[in-house]
């Protein structure tokens, strides 16, 4: 009798493990489909973070394409060679980011973009005392700051890149229209140079 109960218990346990294994592979297929459609999933994010942390992304991607507004002119964000910029490039490479724009107290020198917390971005911050009109920084946790005018600052940032601060660039940033029905401006960040 004990052998029979043990055998039945073992069979139920084995079937349960097989069912969990089947469910796991289905989830992986869904994660891959979600990454292709532009949505992010934790499984897709961990793979991207791993490739960014290995440094392979740093040498492959030298810039990202940034538009201010859905129909904005594309500008190249030239990336720094660090793990923070590599992680951002890795995530953006699999799904473009469309982020709302904010500024501190209606600042006329900078704007920032909050990145969803599901993205794990390494922080390598140091004290920055001067920002120039083309600097882009990462601020922990999950915030990207763009300075479009020179400024004296005292912030803890990781520099992730620079733009070519042309007159056209400055105008595009300052004249970015508010998205109808949303009440905010947006920035669109997508894969760029080096892919």
Automatic annotation (TrEMBL):
Species name: Candidatus Eisenbergiella merdipullorum
Record-given protein name: Cyclophilin-like domain-containing protein
Claim: Signal is one of the keywords in the record: yes
InterPro entries: Cyclophilin-like
Bilayer-crossing regions: none
Keywords: Signal
Pfam family, one: Cyclophil_like2
Annotated ranges, domain Cyclophilin-like: 72-174
Region (Disordered): 28-58
Keyword Signal: yes
